[in-house]
Model the fold of this input.
Amino acid sequence: MKGLKNKRILITGGARGIGAATAARFLEEGARVFVLDCDKAALRSIEKEMSGLGGTVAADVSDVEAVNHAFKELDCFIQGLDVLVNNAGISIRHPFLEVAPDEWLKIINVNLNGMFYVAQQAARRMLEGEEGVILNMGSTNGLIGYPYYAAYNASKSGVIELTRSMALELAPKVRVNAVCPGYILTPMQEAEYTPQMLRECESKVPLARLGKPEEVAALFAFLASDEARFITGQAFVIDGGEIAGGLASQT
Ligand SMILES: NC(=O)c1ccc[n+]([C@@H]2O[C@H](COP(=O)([O-])OP(=O)(O)OC[C@H]3O[C@@H](n4cnc5c(N)ncnc54)[C@H](O)[C@@H]3O)[C@@H](O)[C@H]2O)c1
Done:
């Protein structure tokens, strides 16, 4: 991809799953990659596995003070930031009537508030520089209804609208887009779905399989690159065709 070499890139939730695949992809592109994650053990593993990583920062994105502190730490490594992949997120699968208030708050705090805290810090640095790109992790769950994910769906819908608002206010210096994957096989999915449920998910995808983290990483790389210079304020679906017909999976 054009224009990613030597770019300073921060990936939240980058210690595993889609975030880790994205870190690997941006390293391949010659970028300077920094990973923020709340899982210290996973951060230690990724430091060993990924040679060339610019650095890692341990922080919980839902804790505004921790996020501010993490950015100050980052400022010691790099002056400014070119690309943010705002990816950290969690999911809880529960029937709507059984969602406890603290579960609701936890999802909203990580997936929506955390994304806002990180995006605001990143945007300030990008506006002080020449330009920047912010890519927020949405989901097809933010675009259509899925049962048993009320809090998650609401958080991801919020991310998509936050993305549009940011794109309008931060243009023309900073481009902001959302990426909305369908089923991608990661530790998050493996924790929530039985093998039988995963097969059912696959059967509802026109391309007849779950997506791979590397495929989402490729979309992040394109949107961050100079190839996407005229793209802002959009939500990009990557789901193997799952929602093309407007029919949500009921699994
Ligand atoms: N896997 C999918 O099918 C799928 C589909 C659509 C959207 N998404 C979104 O993609 C993102 C990554 O998902 P994944 O499947 O790779 O999940 P994952 O659980 O495999 O990885 C998530 C990473 O985020 C980190 N994280 C979680 N909470 C955090 C917090 N409060 N602060 C900092 N780091 C935190 C975790 O430690 C982990 O390293 C999430 O936002 C998720 O909602 C995933």
